[in-house]
Design goal:
The complex is a heterodimer of chains A (442) and B (224). Chain A is of the alpha+beta class. Chain A has ten helices and twelve strands. Helices cover 53% and strands 19% of the residues of chain A. In chain B, strands 2-1-3-6-7 form a five-stranded parallel sheet, sandwiched between helices. A four-stranded antiparallel sheet of chain B has the order 8-9-10-11, covered by helices on one side. Chain B has a three-stranded antiparallel sheet with strand order 12-14-13. Classes of the chains: A alpha+beta (442), B alpha/beta (224). Chain B: This is Response regulator transcription factor.
């Protein structure tokens, strides 16, 4: 629910509650004032009658137009003096009620106790309640409309800086070198928010720069000792060695090689997580794929593996060229490495997917673990175990999905470039004996 | 040929120096930006090896200094950083080539020689080893003046051998030289054997001597 709608609703609720309450209060006030005033008037009338009686003047003239009864009573002046009686009666010949007010004063004049009663009728205050109620409805309706309309207009004006801030945040990219600059507004809260966001993004950018620097430095710090090790063993190989020593050096060199590959791969993964390879450009994926496949054809040849290719031309995909190269290379390398003598590799490329399938023995680990770091299909193989983790990461960075299936003695890896992947997956013959994994988290 | 090695790691610097001195380079070492600037303003060098990350500054500053002072040397950048922008910065800043750590010493040497051939006077594009003659411009190999039918990769391999003659070249070094990053994560380098076998066959067919010898456990050597 929009904030402005919430606020409007609150206002409407407040109006709905407050206006009837004020109406009741004002009705009670009017009623009280009316009766009080009338009582006072009747009392003063009684007082005038009493004054006339005291002065021995005739009262007939005075009471002629007024509703006053004068009577002499026996006995003392009652304790309750004056007496006020209210009575609600039907008005004569009408269905509405009227209020009758009787004020009786007792006064002793020349030893005689007179009872002076004056009365008056007026509209029962309950009667004008209905007209007040109609006013109330009008009031609430007008207020409601006013609130709703003004809220819409005001929100557009008041929330303008907020909306521009949101837009700025949406377009903010931590890899951009320039800092986030937000407009200043006349609203203090928004300024505070903007200040807060600016500080936060600046801090995030600093942290990002530090993290990036760290990953770069870490690789530097590891690669330099590795370079020392490698060059020293190379210098050692130039000296005269016996076969035992040569063996030892060869093992060292293999391990140095592995270490170097691991650090390179980890740095690549870190850099992808830092979104350093984000791109909006579309490249000719088909060309890169073709080049990489041709490069690997030589290795395939050595194992007597036939590589067949069915690649569409003019396949433009939004991906960083370096990543495209690594993606195809890692899958291709896998297809050759986990293949058998005289096996085959088939590569398919359309605008929707890139699929690579190869012959080979089934993997021994659960399929979902294939894409995890340092998990290998078979331990005897000397790969590092990061190739598919990198492939998966590339797919995440580029919004691709990757699936793996083992069907009829073939490993099938498929990278889907868009949402059409679901129908494609259904195209794979279903068979309860094989597992199928799709990584579609985006 | 005179070379300035700007690298802050003493052990690595010593390795490079050892290797290049036996290849008849005259080596001098600088371990920081200031020292490098000082040496560059006094002496002239044919080659400069430049590490990007130095303790007292950025190697790219040295590169800028070299260009500003109009020093005519071949600059080869060595860096552990293979970040793309570094590569671009280095090459746009006027470096001739770029090599990432951990590199193979024969690779470094081959790059230096290649830079030299590119930037030197006429005739330097011909590399010879007894009866074998390579033309790096046309990518043609001749044995006893007879043109060999070899692939570009085989040409590269032969050139790599001749440039690093009498050196033991490991299979990894050969693989990295020929295929670069594609050999990353490739545990098995047995395919190099096949490659060398083909090359030997072709040279032998042209009545060339077999100079390539297998060094047990280590790799291969081009022995003249």
């Amino acid at each position: 629910m929009k904030l402005i709608n919430k606020i409007s609703l609150w206002f409407l609720c407040i109006i709905l509650v407050i206006t009837p309450v004020t109406m009741i209060i004002s009705r009670a006030g009017i009623k009280r004032k009316m009766i009080e005033f009338e009582e006072k008037r009747l009392l003063s009338v009684n007082e005038r009658v009493y004054n006339l009686l005291k002065e021995g003047q005739p009262v007939d003239d005075f009471i002629r137009d007024r509703e006053i009864q004068i009577a002499a009573v026996k006995g003392p002046v009652p304790r309750e003096n004056p007496q006020v009686v209210r009575r609600v009666d039907n008005a004569e010949g009408m269905s509405e009620k009227e209020l009758a007010l009787f004020v009786t004063s007792y006064r002793q004049v020349n030893g005689v106790v007179y009872k002076v009663t004056s009365h008056n009728y007026f509209i029962n205050p309950s009667e004008f309640f209905s007209s007040m109620f109609i006013t109330l409805l009008w009031k609430m309706l007008l207020l409601g409309i006013a609130v709703l309309i003004s809220a819409r207009i005001l929100s557009r004006i008041l929330f303008k800086p907020f909306k521009s801030t949101m837009e700025a945040i949406r377009n903010f990219n931590i890899r951009q070198k320039q800092k986030l600059q937000l407009e200043r507004s006349s609203t203090r809260e928004f300024n505070e928010l903007n200040c807060f966001i600016e500080t936060m993004t600046n801090k995030a950018m600093e942290e990002y720069a530090t993290a990036r620097e760290f990953s770069e430095n870490a690789s530097h710090e590891l690669q330099t000792p590795l370079a020392v090790l490698r060059t020293k063993t190379e210098l050692l190989t130039q000296t005269s060695l016996n076969s035992q020593q040569a063996d030892l050096i060869e093992h060292m060199q293999t391990e140095i090689n592995k270490l170097s590959n691991i650090t390179k791969s980890l740095v690549l993964l870190a850099r992808m997580e830092n979104h350093e390879f984000n791109t909006r450009e579309k490249i000719r994926f088909c060309r890169i794929a073709k080049n990489v496949i041709e490069t690997y054809a030589y290795w395939a040849d050595l194992k007597n593996i036939t590589v067949t290719r069915n690649t569409d031309s003019r396949v433009f995909i939004q991906i960083h060229p370096t990543l495209a190269d690594i993606l195809v290379a890692n899958l291709m390398r896998n297809a050759i490495r986990y293949n058998e003598e005289n096996g085959s590799v088939h590569v398919e490329l359309t605008t929707d997917y890139f699929r690579i399938s190869n012959t080979g023995a089934p993997v021994t680990i659960p399929h979902k673990d294939l894409f995890r770091r340092f998990k290998k299909g078979s331990q005897k193989n000397e790969g590092v175990g990061l190739g598919l983790a990198i492939v998966k990461q590339i797919c995440e960075v580029c919004n691709f999905r990757i699936s793996y299936a083992y069907v009829e003695g073939r490993h099938i890896f498929c990278v889907y470039f868009n949402e059409n992947y679901l129908s494609e997956i259904d195209g794979i013959p279903s068979n309860s004996s094989f597992q199928r994994v799709v990584f579609a988290e985006v | 040929m005179k070379i300035l090695i700007i690298e802050d790691n003493i052990a690595l610097s010593a390795s490079i120096r050892d290797y290049l001195e036996t290849e008849h380079f005259i080596c001098e070492c600088a371990f920081g930006v200031d020292e490098a600037r000082e040496k560059l303003s006094i002496f002239t060098y044919d080659f400069i090896l430049l590490d990007i990350m130095l303790p007292d500054g950025d190697g790219l500053d040295v590169l800028r200094f070299i260009k500003a002072e109009k020093i005519v040397s071949n600059v080869l950048i060595i860096s552990a950083r293979d970040a793309l922008d570094d590569k671009i910065n280095g090459l746009e800043g006027g470096a001739d080539d770029y090599i990432t750590k951990p590199f193979h010493l024969p690779e470094l040497h081959a790059r230096l020689r290649a830079m030299y051939r590119r930037n030197s006077l006429q005739g330097s594009h011909i590399v010879t080893a007894n009866e074998i003659e390579l033309d790096t411009n046309t990518i043609e190999a001749r044995v006893h003046s007879l043109l060999l039918d070899i692939t570009p990769k085989e040409f590269d391999l032969l050139l790599y051998f001749i440039v690093n003659k009498d050196r033991v070249l490991s299979r990894q070094a050969i693989a990295t030289h020929l295929w670069g990053d594609y050999t990353d994560n490739l545990a098995n380098f047995d395919f190099i054997y096949q490659h060398i076998k083909n090359l030997r066959k072709k040279i032998a067919a042209a009545n060339g001597n077999d100079y390539i010898e297998t060094v047990y456990g280590l790799g291969y050597r081009f022995k003249l």
